[in-house]
Every structure is written in structure tokens, then in C-alpha cells.
């Protein structure tokens, strides 16, 4: 028997409370039984996103929320400024171009964070830019971009909104939507919220809703104005993903019981321990600055294939992590500490890395990284 461990940056493990709740008999999405379920979910998401505004619930992956954030607030020909520092920054560019927005990119070497002054300079140079698109946590590189600093810049421009992909950042990082002035905040169910894939969440500011009134991009399934109208009635526009929303309420209860600040601190603690343990093994971080609390990206040792490390972790020891994406495929591997994660998930990951590297012939002393993780994670 090979016991499985899921330590990837999505999907992440699902707590038993949510699994049990989702195993209950199905209810109809238009029945009175569902109304309090939806009401609880929408209020819980407002609490999580730290906003008084609506947080839409979509039956889609997080990418659906990204698509909706483009076609609901912008028109063909509008100018978009995209922070492109990884695989998902590239995705923003592709989505914007698919809806015929004019895209200007701030390209960042993978592993580095955007400099807020570069965004400020771009907006000063061209104040006709209508949207700034960025990841909070760039999952492919393990970098966190300074959303508070970016929001403080963008909110000075009445004709520009800040659109943040927080799909792998929600729960792991403090994102104060209202206090900072984030206009569109996108989340996904299968990351910090500890659910199976299938839900996207989109928080929308009043400033962004004013953009929606003028946007002419085509929309049908991802129609946020219709979703907002239905949300007021504790419904979704089309068939609600009832089972996932029931599970969402259970996961929100878990985070609420822990407390937001404690959840952020837990993720920061796990991330720090992972990084320090890996460094103790003589490995280098791929992330050069502003590391994410969600995932740690690690350079493969010279002469070893990062994809083989990832594969051996899964095949030999049942530990599913993540490999590299794009041009760093084979050069790095990634370990998540996100969502339903705790002390022994990190220790398991570090122990697995040690055993795989030793098995691949890399000189390593077993237990050297684990000991560091243990010291840092002792209660």
C-alpha cells in the first residue's frame, strides 16, 4: 500500500467536515432549503475578502473568474496593464487579448516581484489605462506581489481599476479589499479554501461596478450584473453548484474558528519552515524576493531534473507536489503549504525531498532539513 499525501498548490486536501457535509443528500438549487446555505456562503466570503461589497459565486474554476473580470468591466480597445511575472501573469495577457483589449505588459523575470514604482510610472505615462491586472501569489514562481502598494497607486486614478488574481493567495495572505482599495478580487475553491475545484469567487468594488455599466465586451455565462441580481435573492444566475457551496460553508466555519490573523500567521509559519528546511539541505530557492506563503519554489540541484524529483516524490512516496511550468519546467519543483495544512505536512514534504534526492544520488544527510523544520514548528 502507498499512502497518498497531497501537497500541491491546488487542488489541496479537503477537511473531513466538508467531505461529510458534501456527502449529504442533494438539495435543489431553487428550493427554500438552499437559500440559507447561499446566504451563509455570501456573508462568509465578504468576511474572508474583508469587504462590504458583493462577492459573486461562480460555478467554474478560478480562470472563469479571471475571464469574467475582463469581459464584465472592459470593452474592446480598452487599455490594460498586465504584470507578467509568471505562467499566470501570461494568462492575464491571453485573456485580455482574447477580448480585444490593448495590452501593455510589465515583464518581470520569473522569481522576482513587481516594483510598484514601475506601475506608477506606467500610469503616469498613460493615464488612459483602464485596468491593472496582477497576481497576488504567482503560483508558478512562488512570488507574492505587494498588493497593498499597488492598490494605493491605482486608487488615485478614477479611470483605472485594480484586478487581482488571489486564487492561491486567499486565506494564506492578508488582502484587505475595502481598506486597501482592491477593485476586483478573484478566488478559487481548490486552494486556501480547502474545497474540490469548481467554484470561483469575485469580489467587486463600487468603482468596478461603475465600469461594468459601460463595458461592451460580449458576455453570457459570466454575466456579473445578472449574478449580482441573483445573489441579492440568495441564488446564482444559472444552476448553483449546491454541493460545493455546502462544503464552502463548512470550510468557512473552519477558517472563522481559527481567525483570519491566525490563518495568515499559520501559512507564514509553514512557509518559513519549508524554506529554511530546504536551505539546510543546500538547495536554493527559485523565488528571489517576496516569497509567497502559499507555495515554495525550489531550484533542482545541478544535474537533476526537477520533473524527476516531482515524479519520484509521487511514485515512490505518494507525495504529490508540483513541477515547474513554462520555461522553468524541469528546472524547479514546488511544495505547497496551503489550506488544510499543518506542521506534519511540512515535515513529510521535507523528509520526502531528502529521500528522493538521496535516491537520485545527490549528496545529502538524511534528517538535516527535517530537524530544521521541527525546530521551527515546535509549538
Sum up the structure in keywords:
seven-stranded mixed sheet, 2 domains, three-stranded antiparallel sheet, globular, alpha/beta, Aspartate Aminotransferase, domain 1, 379 residues, Aspartate Aminotransferase, domain 2
Please, could you describe this protein's structure?
This protein starts with a strand and ends with a helix. Helix 1 runs antiparallel to helix 10 (242-258) and helix 12 (306-317) crosses helix 13. The protein is globular, with a radius of gyration of 21 Å. It folds into 2 domains: 5-10 and 260-377, Aspartate Aminotransferase, domain 1 (Alpha-Beta Complex), CATH 3.90.1150.10; 16-257, Type I PLP-dependent aspartate aminotransferase-like (Major domain) (Aspartate Aminotransferase, domain 2), CATH 3.40.640.10. The protein has helices spanning 16-22, 35-49, 62-71, 87-98, 116-125, 147-154, 177-180, 206-214, 224-231, 242-258, 260-280, 306-317, 343-359, 368-377, and strands at residues 5-6, 55-59, 79-84, 102-107, 129-135, 137-138, 143-144, 161-165, 184-188, 199-204, 295-299, 319-320, 322-323, 332-336. Helix content is 42%, strand content 16%. The strands form 4 sheets. A 7-stranded mixed β-sheet has the order 2-10-9-8-5-3-4, with helices on both faces. The chain has a 3-stranded antiparallel β-sheet with strand order 11-14-13, with helices on one face. The chain is α/β, with parallel strands linked by helices and 379 residues long. Strand 8, helix 7 and strand 9 form a beta-alpha-beta unit. The protein contains 14 helices and 14 strands.
Amino acid at each position: 500500500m502507498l499512502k497518498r499525501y497531497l501537497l500541491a498548490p491546488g487542488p489541496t486536501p479537503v477537511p473531513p467536515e466538508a467531505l461529510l457535509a458534501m456527502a449529504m443528500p442533494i438539495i435543489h438549487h431553487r428550493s427554500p432549503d438552499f437559500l440559507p446555505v447561499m446566504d451563509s456562503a455570501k456573508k462568509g466570503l465578504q468576511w474572508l475578502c474583508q469587504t462590504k461589497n458583493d462577492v459573486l459565486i461562480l460555478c467554474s474554476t478560478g480562470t472563469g473568474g479571471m475571464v469574467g473580470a475582463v469581459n464584465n468591466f472592459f470593452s474592446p480597445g480598452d487599455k490594460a496593464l498586465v504584470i507578467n511575472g509568471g505562467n499566470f501573469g501570461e494568462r492575464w495577457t491571453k485573456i485580455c487579448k482574447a477580448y480585444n483589449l490593448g495590452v501593455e505588459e510589465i515583464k518581470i523575470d520569473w522569481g522576482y516581484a513587481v516594483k510598484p514604482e514601475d506601475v506608477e510610472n506606467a500610469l503616469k505615462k498613460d493615464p488612459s489605462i483602464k485596468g491593472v491586472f496582477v497576481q497576488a501569489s504567482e503560483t508558478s514562481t512562488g512570488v507574492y506581489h505587494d498588493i497593498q502598494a499597488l492598490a494605493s497607486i491605482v486608487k488615485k486614478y478614477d479611470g483605472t481599476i485594480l484586478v487581482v488574481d488571489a486564487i492561491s493567495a486567499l486565506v494564506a495572505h492578508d488582502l484587505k479589499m475595502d481598506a486597501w482599495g482592491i477593485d476586483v478580487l478573484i478566488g478559487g475553491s481548490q486552494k486556501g479554501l480547502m474545497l474540490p475545484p469548481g467554484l470561483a469567487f469575485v469580489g467587486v468594488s463600487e468603482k468596478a461596478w461603475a465600469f461594468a455599466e459601460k463595458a461592451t465586451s460580449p458576455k453570457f455565462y459570466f454575466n456579473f450584473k445578472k449574478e449580482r441580481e441573483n445573489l441579492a435573492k440568495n441564488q446564482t444566475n444559472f444552476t448553483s453548484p449546491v454541493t460545493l457551496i455546502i462544503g464552502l460553508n463548512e470550510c468557512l466555519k473552519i477558517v472563522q474558528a481559527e481567525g483570519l490573523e491566525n490563518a495568515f500567521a499559520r501559512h507564514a509559519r509553514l512557509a518559513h519552515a519549508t524554506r529554511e528546511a530546504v536551505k539546510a539541505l543546500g538547495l536554493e530557492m527559485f523565488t528571489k524576493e517576496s516569497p509567497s506563503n502559499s507555495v515554495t519554489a525550489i531550484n533542482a540541484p545541478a544535474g537533476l531534473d526537477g520533473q524527476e524529483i516531482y515524479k519520484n516524490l509521487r511514485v515512490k512516496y505518494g507525495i504529490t507536489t508540483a513541477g515547474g511550468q513554462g520555461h522553468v519546467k524541469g528546472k524547479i519543483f514546488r511544495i505547497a503549504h496551503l489550506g488544510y495544512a499543518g506542521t506534519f505536512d511540512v515535515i513529510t514534504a521535507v523528509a520526502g525531498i531528502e529521500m528522493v534526492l538521496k535516491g537520485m544520488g545527490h549528496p545529502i544527510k538524511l534528517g538535516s532539513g527535517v530537524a530544521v523544520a521541527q525546530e521551527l514548528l515546535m509549538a
